Amino acid sequence: MGVAVSWVSAVESMDAWPVPVDRLATMSTDATGTEPLPILLLNGPNLNTLGIRQPEVYGSATLADVVELAERTAGELGYGLRAAQTNHEGEMIDWLHEARGNISGIVINPAAWTHTSVALADALVIPDVPIMEVHISNVHKREEFRHHSFVSPLASGVIIGYGIRGYEFAIRRLVEVLG
After folding, report:
1. Which of these is catalytic: 97, 135, 147, 148?
2. Does residue 102 lie in a domain region?
3. Domain-located, residue 9
4. Which member of 9, 62, 89, 131 has the greatest number of CB atoms within 10 A?
5. Is residue 7 a part of any domain in this protein?
6. Annotated binding-site positions
7. Is 147 a catalytic residue?
8. Which residue positions are annotated as catalytic (predicted)?
């Protein structure tokens, strides 16, 4: 079983994403068409600085470590993974629009957009798939403004405060939800 992976960061060319629908379909299914569509892993603003930004809050793991863990976990469970990070809200919204019909589910760390973005919440329903929300730190132990999420009411589950292991937990739970 092949695992489809695409890594896009804010510092790499965005020409790689979105992948045209026909190419994504080819990448995410085997010759018999029996593999599930990939899981979409999205990371919001400033998460490209994991490992250097506030390690006392977010730990020393990098975004590459997050993606490696997510790829390994998804692959163990028979799913491909498409991973992307951006510091630009409209770009993430465009990715969500283009994901409809091309993914099995979403694992998202919306970062600061968690607390501010109605537009992101509106876009998250467009793919019409289960969503898992992840936060590396325990947002409820932090500033009051971080206690509200526009994403949580849309999510099948929310995983908070487990460091980058939260991504693994989210993928495992997402696959359970997908049944």
Report:
1. 135
2. yes
3. no
4. 131
5. no
6. 109, 115, 122, 136-137, 146
7. no
8. 58, 135
Q: Is 79 labeled as catalytic in the residue annotation?
A: no
In angstroms, rounded to a whole number, what is the distance separating the alpha carbons of residues 102 and 11? 24
HSE-CB for 6 with a 13 A CA cutoff: 23
- Residue 86 within a domain: yes
Q: Which residues fall in the annotated binding site for substrate?
A: 109, 115, 122, 136-137, 146
Global confidence as pTM: 0.81
* Euclidean distance between CA atoms 2 and 27, whole angstroms: 8
Number of domains in the chain: 1
Q: Provide the residue-wise pLDDT of the chain in tens; the chain has 179 residues.
A: 333 344 344 333 334 444 443 333 333 343 456 789 999 999 999 999 999 988 888 888 999 999 999 999 999 999 999 999 999 999 999 999 999 999 999 999 999 999 889 999 999 999 999 999 999 998 878 778 666 898 999 999 999 999 999 999 999 999 999 99
